[in-house]
Amino acid sequence: MNESTPLIRLIGLHKIYGRGGASYHALKGIDLSIHEGEFVAVMGPSGSGKSTVMNIIGCLDTPSDGQYLFRGMPVETMSRDQRALLRRHFIGFVFQGFNLLPRTTALENVELPLIYRGHPAAERRAAARAALRRVGLDNWEHHTPAELSGGQQQRVAIARAIVTGPKVLLADEPTGNLDTRTSAEIMDLITALNREHGITVLMVTHEPEMARYARRIVRFVDGRVESDRYAEPAS
């Protein structure tokens, strides 16, 4: 990929749900470029389109019009299977609700993406252990989610998101269910993944304190980009 080519580029992106009088125009011509290694916070009120954009970038949804380029490749023209492969090999997800399987251990939860990719058992077990070490949970691999605090569960979710070595980490309100101290710990971890491991981070948040960790803040209002600014992140 040419250094000047954005990792992610959205051009005139529209998303319309429903038809006729019941239709809802969620995105109204979004233009947005994100380069490899950036840490971008996406903010905006409920219904502003920020989650819709995240779903399209994560290949969980498709635009109604416009272009989505990933490393210069047009994603909107890909088949469902091709989008699934892109998602599986290049994108990691972290959600507000953790989304862990309740009856499986931390290690088994982290292994899941590698099972979908067909990795041998020994290989995926070693990779899952390494990911848990990276998030500071190397002594908790045999614990189930019920035996972990909220912060620990989110660390497991982050380990699961990075175990495949993704280019992009999509984080949707990653601190929404956590207290202030634990939120700061999780944001420090995400920042370290961005700075030390070069993972591009795109994070939806409604909390200004969390957005300050990002180098760039994009604000959505009524399906459009209202502002896009760079700022020094929190230390």
TrEMBL record:
UniProt-listed CDD domains: ABC_MJ0796_LolCDE_FtsE (cd03255)
InterPro entries membership: AAA+_ATPase, ABC_transporter-like_ATP-bd, ABC_transporter-like_CS, ABC_transpr_LolD-like, MacB-like_ATP-bd, P-loop_NTPase
Keywords: ATP-binding, Nucleotide-binding, Transport
SMART domains assigned to the protein according to its UniProt record, in alphabetical order: AAA
Every ABC transporter domain range: 8-234
One Gene Ontology MF term: ATP hydrolysis activity
Pfam families from the UniProt entry: ABC_tran (PF00005)
One GO cellular component term noted in the UniProt record for this chain: transmembrane transporter complex
Family listed: Belongs to the ABC transporter superfamily. Macrolide exporter (TC 3.A.1.122) family.
Name of the featured protein: Putative ABC transport system ATP-binding protein
Organism this protein belongs to: Fontimonas thermophila
